[in-house]
Amino acid sequence: xxxxxxxxxxxxxxxxxxxxxxxxxxxxxxxxxxxxxxxxxxxxxxxxxxxxxxxxxxxxxxxxxxxxxxxxxxxxxxxxxxxxxxxxxxxxxxxxxxxxxxxxxxxxxxxxxxxxxxxxxxxxxxxxxxxxxxxxxxxxxxxxxxxxxxxxxxxxxxxxxxxxxxxxxxxxxxxxxxxxxxxxxxxxxxxxxxxxxxxxxxxxxxxxxxxxxxxxxxxxxxxxxxxxxxxxxxxxxxxxxxxxxxxxxxxxxxxxxxxxxxxxxxxxxxxxxxxxxxxxxxxxxxxxxxxxxxxxxxxxxxxxxxxxxxxxxxxxxxxxxxxxxxxxxxxxxxxxxxxxxxxxxxxxxxxxxxxxxxxxxxxxxxx
Length: 367
Ligand SMILES: [Zn+2]
Prior knowledge:
Elements: H1 2-34, E1 38-44, H2 49-59, E2 69-74, H3 85-94, H4 115-121, E3 125-133, H5 137-143, H6 152-160, E4 166-170, H7 190-196, E5 199-202, E6 214-218, H8 234-245, E7 252-258, H9 261-266, H10 270-294, E8 297-302, E9 306-307, E10 311-313, E11 323-325, E12 331-332, E13 336-341, E14 350-353, H11 354-363
Helix pairs in contact: 2-10, 3-5, 3-11, 8-10
Bound molecules: zinc ion.
């Protein structure tokens, strides 16, 4: 009897653990099925609903029309109702709120793992592309950890050793020493160091670019020229970056920032805003073209905050006489739009806080 009882218990246990195992296996399979191989996060800095209205009115048909999932995101930081780009970038990249001005650090100074670091640690290729200096707050939040966003020379050191596969944008002066076209007082030539570490370095607009390997492409001393004053678009830079990153078998994660949408807001300049939004559309188009071919890429288009408190008015039905009204020249706490396309896009629908979106992104990186 005893043996039968033991057998029965054993069988119950075995069946239970078998079923649990099956359930886990199915869950893992399902997660693997649904989790994207690649993630491209496109951030329109300062792009609120007003800016999006200008974009749609100006463009008519646009890439975002193809995104099946939409939502809104609150952007407040830990210590401020109105966030700065560093705290917002940190929330998106780490999943944690922090104080304004801090870059991928908690208020107590402890380091927060960024999305690109977590992806890199899983063998994925990672990269950033921005129209500001690559050491500016948003890209910095994905590849460095400093208490103050103004520490761009320190950010450059950390980016140089981050292991990122692609770094594209402006900001040469933060990588070069004084006397050699740079502003570094420590004498370090980070570009030379990165070349030694295997990076191809380019600074021309139409350079001979490698078709594989790591790329540091710094097209300006500080920020890139504004979109209507340079002969190339953000979309071109994104295309090059994707063609390099997509060679990694384990997949890739790329952060793209339309940095100067924010600056158009700070200067209440509608003409500049239109040019920057058109440029950002080029980046979304390039990312979408890849995602449509690839079918395993999640695209997320969002902003880190709104800038200027922009509302759009006009009398013509087609918006041809639209006019922007700004409430001031700084960031606001307005919610910002969020669009998703591709595997796992559904989880981004609805209303989120900015740090929650960061946590959702981390959750898509499987162990
Ligand atoms: Zn910003």
